[in-house]
Amino acid sequence: MLPLGLELVAFAAVTGPTGRLRQRLGLAHDVPLVGAVGRLVPIKDLGTLVQAVARLDGVHLALIGDGEQRAELEALVA
Predict the structure, then answer these.
(1) How far apart are CA 14 and CA 27, in angstroms?
(2) Confidence of residue 5 (pLDDT cuts 50, 70, 90)
(3) Does residue 35 contact residue 59 with C-beta atoms inside 8 Å?
(4) Long-range contacts (CB closer than 8 Å, 24 or more residues apart) made by 50-58
(5) How many other C-beta atoms can be found within 10 angstroms of the C-beta atom of residue 69?
(6) How many whole angstroms separate alpha carbon 35 and alpha carbon 53?
(7) Side-chain half-sphere exposure of 31, counting CA atoms within 13 A
(8) What's the longest Cα–Cα distance across the chain?
């Protein structure tokens, strides 16, 4: 097996939701929130995720990351 190359110990130590992202986004605890964290690249097909979440009434989406599709995804969301 190949090692990941990233130190994940700090992330593994999280024991549950902190609410910080919801607070930063101004969302109440009971508002549905879908998230994706990673590189914003074509193989991830995040455009389909954006379009799917847009069809769900009252559901919010947080895309966290950067990559070659960032501008394209920002335009799609706008």
Answers:
(1) 21
(2) confident
(3) no
(4) 50/76, 50/77, 51/76, 56/32, 58/31, 58/32
(5) 20
(6) 10
(7) 16
(8) 42
pLDDT greater at residue 21 or residue 1: 21
The model's pLDDT over 13-48, given as tens digits with 9 standing for 90+, comes to: 888 888 999 999 999 999 999 999 999 999 999 999
* Structure token pair of residue 60: 């919010």
Instruction: For residue 24, give both structure tokens.
Output: 């930063």
Question: Which residues face 36 on adjacent strands?
Answer: 63
The answer, yes or no, to whether residue 78 has pLDDT greater than 80, is yes
Tokens found for residue 45: 């097909």
In angstroms, the CA 46 to CA 39 distance is: 10
